[in-house]
Amino acid sequence: MAVLMPIGGKFYNKLGPKVMVASGLFLSAVSFVQLAHMTVDTGFWDLIWPQVLQGAGFSLVFVALTTAAFASIERPKITAASGLYNVVRTVFGSIGIAVAASQLSSITQSNHALLAERAGMANPAATTWVAQATAGMMRTGVDPYTARMRALRLLDATITRQSVVLALNRVFILIAILFVIALPLVLLLRAGHAEGEAEFAAE
Prior knowledge:
Low-confidence stretches: 194-203
Number of strands: 0
CATH topology: Growth Hormone, Chain: A
CATH architecture: Up-down Bundle
Shape: elongated
């Protein structure tokens, strides 16, 4: 975003808002689909490139939408329009973040309950894992009861970590779907000349 935002106005004057916003929404959707394939072993380089793609998509969307929003506003009204635009964007951005956080929490709890049920003591793999973990701790001098409790806590921590990753993947897919749903709305945009380049985007 830091690289593309300052030159977004040049793209806008050549491509127009529809192409820029559509491209930005598409790139953003693709980036969230890529992020939706995380595992507990996902590393830095698995995340950085979807984030770069997301930054490019967001910059295209923000610059084009901001420029198009102010294209038909008279200059004396720019300050008031800018304030209203930023308030609306901030409010609905906060609502979106709150909804995503709520979904993340809800899905994490559901995943944890489901995985905990499947990893109960009736599951031979879970029983074997707990027994091995307990035995390993006992070899370090821990008493059997404490060793078993620690093994169970480790199992619960593993389930929690997996539940969070699965919930993140689900939320990222939902966000990608929202970007795709927003694509037809691009047809409602009207072009306007980006006189100030990315002046308003910087606000």
